[in-house]
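Sequence dictates fold. Next comes a concrete instance:
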Amino acid sequence: MSADGFVRMSVGGLALDPITKTPIVILRDEEGALNLPIWIGQLEATSMATELEGVKMTRPMTHDLLCIAIEKLGASVERIEVTEIRDGTFFAVIKLKTAGQELTLDARPSDAISLALRTGTPIYVADGVIEATEASRSDQEEPVALESERDISDVSPDEWVDILKNLDPDDFKYKM
């Protein structure tokens, strides 16, 4: 698919799985030909949504704190990579540069993407991940219809307040 084994992508939006109501981040390639949905947690979706909407919290959120720590330690985020999918779970790494040295940190894709949004860092997805998800979709009897999912990237700050007030602790558990 690409020369270096990765496709550059960006966050195309956030949606809700119509069945499980689990948030999904949609990554899109630069040409708009590829869409890669990754199911994420409520807190990670909130982190992404606040950054996409430019909502600034009065205190640093977890991903803001991570950005501050990286900067204070004299490092920079060079890129994030969604590297593989194993048993339905996506894996990612964060590539840091500090004192001329490159460091690679294992990360959940949702955390890496939230960090990328805050730092303006490019997001790359391995060709193998794209191929595996496309093969998985073609094996399904019916394609996943993202159009029917609610796009939560345009939720207003007031609506987020209501959503957060009404969350139940059970909402933060991954459904199996």
